Amino acid sequence: MKLSLNWLKSYVDLKLTTDDLAHRLTMAGLEVEGVHAAGADTVLELEITPNRPDCLSVWGMSREIAAITGKSLHLPRIKAHKPTKDKISIAVEDKKDCGRYIATLMEGAAIAPSPPETSKRLSAVGLRPVNNAVDVTNFVLMESGQPLHVFDYDKIAEGKIIVRRAKTGERIVTIDGIERKLDPSILVIADAQKPVAIAGVIGGKSTQVTSATKNILLESACFDAGLVRRASRTLGLQSDSSYRFERGVDFEGVALAANRATDLICSLTNARVVRRTDCFKTVAASRRPLVVGISDMEGLLGTFLAPARIKMFLTSLGFTLRPSGKNIFRVTPPSWRNDIKAGVDIVEEVARMVGYDRLSEGLPVIKAVNVRVDPRPRAVKETLARTLAAQGFCETVTYSLISAEMLERSGLENLRGVALRNFLSRDHSILRPSMLPSLLAVVQTNINRGQKDLRLFEISKVYSANEERTTLGLVMTGRRGRDWRNHSKDAVDFYDLKGAIEQSLGRLGISGQWQAPTCPVLDQGAGADLWINGKNVGFAGRISAQILSRWDIKAPGIYFAQIDLEPVFVLPAPGVQYHPFAAFPAIGRDVSIAVKTDVPYARIENVCYSSAGALLKGVHLIEEYTGDKMASGKRALVFSLTYQSDERTLREDEVNGLHQNVLKALAEQTGAVLR
Amino acid sequence: MWNFSQIFDQARNDLASANDASSLEACRLKYLGKKGLVPAIFDSLSSALPEDKPAIGKGANDLRILVVALLAEKAMALGKGEGGKSCARAVDLTMPGVGPALGHRHVLTQTMTEICDVFERMGFAAVESPEIETEYNNFTGLNIPIDHPSRDAFDTFYLEAADSSAKGRNLLLRSHTSSGQVRVMRDHQPPLAVIIPGRVYRPDAGDASHSFMFHQVEGLLVDKDVKFSDLKGLLSEFCRRFFGPQVKMRFRPHFFPFTEPSAEVDISADIFKGTGRKPWLEILGCGMVNPKVFEAAGYPSGKYTGLAFGMGVERMAMLKYGIKDIRLFYENDVRFLKQF
């Protein structure tokens, strides 16, 4: 809200510099966001929080400043104008919609431009002067915070004012020249035939006060806040009037503003009051005094405040206090403070007047708390992130909102994201059901910028209708490593990705099983599904060339994995136990065989173990060779076997015997040929 | 005056003819040793004519640099086996070291962990709360009525999916982690001290300081005698630990429907380098839990008091690390990621 300092100064003595004033207001909860000059005037830009509609006016701010600075307040004298004739006909259909409606009819107005003093005041706070009647309504709105409206009375059919809901299909052309469609959710002011204003939001064009107007009907009313808010939203129209109504106006201020505006209109336009109706449909929520104890206040604030000081602050803000027992007050808030509903609200008033900076400070004692958190999910996420970072992976944070088009481009059109109703842009209109589109987008961005060696991971959520699942996404592309001593242009492959996953899960004591892939986004023969504890938890492999071309990613291979962590969270934490290592030496034997490519490596390992017995402690693959020296359909495997006993030193001939068994079994059971 | 061009030539010749470790060492002593030529030239400065001094100083320096470089070069050559066995292979100290590439945690997770650590050490428990929420948990349970202007500050994304717990209402993406307060209080009786970190969503048009998705850390402490002074002390301590002991801060009255009294905390900008900032920077919102929130949670009236606070993780990271554009966090350019 814009606040003119000159205007303010006509109601409160102001000795502070502008900077000091801005600081004091900010520290009292009325944040000054900017100060700028407007001609000879200075205008403060205030952020008034939604609980303080009473501060959306010059009088309201003058009251606050008087209380903050201890200066006195001088509100203007208002001359009463007695009506000469009977009341006007006003009908309020539902008193819940409109609690009070004061209509004042003034006759014989001479409509002309406002005097320069009035125009200047309005311009300083950003309002455009119109004429001496309309300007008074804006002037008093700014002054008192009570929205007002003037009608050309002669344009009101049968001189009747009806406050009612709009009928379906009714239309009104508003002052801004726009025709608006109404419906029964919208409250209107109507005459005998048609709506003439949208209550609390904007007036109608047909009844607006123009230079030809002679007789003016002034409206000062109190409309239901929620109703004005919905109308303003429905119509996409926010006005100074609706802004205040939806925050709540001072029920008693309705009459004050009516009198002030009547007085000003009469003096500026030479009109005289002929009729006046105060349609007082509801009594303002009767203000029950709130009981506030000094000890409660100290209990909540942790600072002792003398009762006299509390009384002084509250009184200066317009509260009435009556003692009610020792150190207990019965406090009645003023009519303009609809936000004060409970004792804590009074505590805040006192606290902000004292100044938060002057209140005590100490540390809370935090007792054993009643919230038990399962530490496992966090430990799993932390361990995975740490292990991956140690392996050169950078963590990403990507938007959970993606587009259906991104899903489709990623070959996941069969998945349905959770759709937003009011998205800002199609690019971010569904909650992702997979990490793949997000990570492909990051890969695309980086590769386009020349960063081609990427190892990325993210641990965050994927979504389905009513479920959020914490998920690990991994992506690798580019060269395997950088070592100038052993320069290699080798690109990462499936085994790098598999290794990264195995190392990370291994840290959690988990060994997954790899099975033939079922996810269609991977290239044939270049991926696998991961199973943990009998559940398919995800997949890993090379993203198909077709998907990469749809993303326009030019890279030798993008390796991606996604693992659902929810099943991992429920696994018991690995109970690490120390195992004494063998005290007796190990004996190694290397084996080099040629074998058909359709014999899986795991089968070879199994044959080794089953044929050697318990003394074979380890099988380690050293090399795979599939070059031109191999017959087609065959590969060479070099691996080393480790024999060891926990009880004694093995004899050479004993190991030789075992090893012969292994070689024989390999030949018989896998068709391996020694090289 | 020294004849430097002649001296340089001599040095080159000496080193060129040195073919084993001992002759190299002899060269080193001749030029760089305590009684060598370079110190001798420097010594001569004291008795030199003032106008000659700069040239002599420069000459001595150049000679030193030349000899050091030639010695290193020769030592390398000898190490590669061109010389005798007596000279071990020397490493080039200036070659880059080799190690596995290290990864990096995202600066947002680092910042979030840092924030949570401070509170967890004080005894708060970190809990997770869903991002897909009901209107009740995001608004009503926090004393934010439907169709009330206080909702304006919390513009919200709604899902197409209906909320099975509330007729005619849809599910939404939480617009603040405060929704987690409602869940925690529904499931637990005081005393409780929790922090709730996570993603939140608001339909704000994106620019350098706004994003439709960001992260918050929420805090809630409920017990029989929690005071505003505790709130001040707790958050002052947090700021000192997070920004450093010299940080200046102020508590300013504000409005949140779920706290009363409410405050915003500003820190003084003077701890940050760079210009053009405001003198005070808002970092978090906080207050004493509004009794209406306890009422909604079903706690007995008047029995408990509590404090709550919420802060934006991006904002904290931007201040701490001098990041000027919030979009950098989600773009994930590795040149950004690798800086943290």
Describe the structure.
The complex is a heterodimer of chains A (675) and B (340). Chain A is of the alpha+beta class and 675 residues long. Chain A folds into 5 domains: 2-69, Phenylalanyl-tRNA Synthetase, Chain B, domain 1; 89-280, Phenylalanyl-tRNA Synthetase, Chain B, domain 3 (3-Layer(bba) Sandwich); 290-329 and 343-357, Phenylalanyl-tRNA Synthetase, Chain B, domain 1 (2-Layer Sandwich); 376-569, BirA Bifunctional Protein, domain 2 (2-Layer Sandwich), CATH 3.30.930.10; 587-674, Alpha-Beta Plaits. Chain A has 19 helices and 31 strands. In chain A, the strands form 8 sheets. Chain A has a 7-stranded mixed sheet with strand order 18-22-23-27-26-25-24, with helices on both faces. In chain A, strands 4-7-10-11-12 form a 5-stranded mixed sheet. In chain A, strands 6-13-5-14 form a 4-stranded antiparallel sheet. In chain A, α18 (601-612) packs across α19. Chain A is elongated, with a radius of gyration of 40 Å. Chain B is of the alpha+beta class. Chain B is 39% helix and 21% strand. In chain B, α1 (4-17) runs parallel beside α4 and α5 packs across α10 (313-321). Residues 82-87 of chain B have low confidence and may be disordered. The interface between A and B is large, with 89 and 88 residues.
